[in-house]
Amino acid sequence: MDALRAEIAGHNRAYHEDDAPQIPDVEYDELVRELRALEEQHPELSTEDSPTHAVGGAPSATFAPVEHAVPMMSLDNSFDHDELRAWSSRIARGLEVSEEAGIGYVCELKIDGIALSMRYENGVLVQGATRGNGRVGEDITANIKTIEVIPHLIPNAPAVLEVRGEVYLPVASFNALNEAQEAAGLARYANPRNTAAGSLRQKDPAITASRNLAFWAYQLGQVEGGPDLATHSAALDWLGELGFPVNPERRLVATISDVLGFTEHWQEHRHDLAYEIDGAVVKVDSLTAQRRLGSTARAPRWAMAFKLPPEERTTKLLAIEVSIGRTGKATPFAVLEPVFVGGSTVQMATLHNDAQVKVKDVRPGDTVIVRKAGDVIPEVVGPVLAERLSGLPEWTFPTDCPTCGEPLVAPEDEAHTFCVNPFCPARQQMQIEYFASRSAMDIEGMGERVVSRFIEEGLISDIGDIFSIDWERVRSLDRFGETTVDNLRAGVEASRRRPLSSLLVGLGIRHFGPSGAEALAAHFGHLDAIASADVEAIASIDGVGPVIAQSVADYFSTEQAQTLVEKFRAGGVNLEGPERSEVPQVLAGKAIVVTGSLEGFSRDSAADAIKSRGGKNPGSVSKKTFAVVVGSEPGASKVSKAEEAGVPMIDEASFVQILETGELPPEVDSA
Hints:
The protein is an alpha+beta fold.
């Protein structure tokens, strides 16, 4: 028990004071649960200073101390539905009511950020503080004033108003920060929560201001002169009326069964949001009932956190290997001792590039933290240095391609290393797989195993050979039955008629994606015209910058590309672009996002309708978005982002009107 207390105290310091946790949350929770169970079995060995009684961590000496008028407590955690039901039963007994009759709970998302207290006096923001140890926090007033969504002045506010909530870093902002870090050869940030905490506790407020932090209000602290509120849900509504951002994904429910439904929904949809959550928080709605239930030394009895399955775990790094992509990019990846994380068993994870391996200093034999969030590729966050064995050598990037043996090249202006051999078998394999993928020519059945076998048998050596495959020879191969061959052949036949933009995407030209491919196909109208165009002509097209133009021109200047064009021509592949549109370009320069299902449009036809009128159909909402078309069952993250950015949200009828006029309906525009 003493060893556990010391270990947990060390992790508390790393997490709350240094913003640099050494282990994932789930493993920290397991240590605390183990210690709590031992203390319950041996109460005579429990101590008053045990971390099971503590809240947060000690405030830093970097900032002035702030004593909280009302303690900022922690929350007890539950990890499955049985624990939530047991908590609900305790609530019913404590209130002496029937659980079946309905107690009334507010369900909220548990934002993965850092707790914040803001104090307003006569409507003026006078102080912002971290939670600290629950009694004393850190004064970070100058920093929180840089967060755009936090109001500095509240009209008609009571004499004293303390608002509590969570500062967080939106996923898009986190990804942008990591792209900048990687471009500068610096270590990637581990996760949005740690990055938000570090950003909020900067000595220089200008650094905080640059991080694009956001905030959700979730609780009242000290209030003097405010309205007589009877419920927590009413308090949240009042905070919203005062101008504070309150998370829209909250639900007022009657029974614990409704609570379980809320947790199940967000376990499935957690990555639909524009920010990270690690669970849900359930609170008894009645403030009278809250006061009656009271608190323990560290947490209120009337609230419970439900933790979602972990997205970070530790495991053993067995080896670091290098894969070669379709452009020749050499990417180091980790071979791991299998670990269940983020809903699946992970055995490999990305290490991004040589620079990231160096700055993270991960070595084969290390215990490492692995992160997997939804469908994102698993990533090695970093090593657990406390568990590193002495004498582990640093890993060095290979000088030669592990597949073809040719030298690897690291361009001066690139963060990556490349195999520049165009005939490298690994590059050819990846190029053909990408060409046949759904995002390009969509050749049904031509996946990794088929491509590998065709290359091995000498049936194809590049993407152009796909259209001259000897199908009789394929039929003679073992494990290729009549049905398989017929389906593959039909897939290749269908791909000959794909749009020119799909063919351009399938070429895998560096920096060149679907939107650029559509622009080139529409402007030039034929592959031959694109192949013979110079850099200036390509760069003059809207949506195609100088980097992309240079990359396209360089690609078509090679003998390999010219050979492929002739193979496509001989193979009967469509080389012509769409006919020039006669539709008025009423949406020129305007970005319209569509979310949910529309009755009169499929997702593709809605996108085509926008683009044919000169508009753009990006996949995400930003402040530059002209409008968001909201159909049935829309994506919660897009709706939330539109609300945050003040982007107009319209129905299908207004969408049709925009397609005709290019302008918002007057009632939408004025609103």
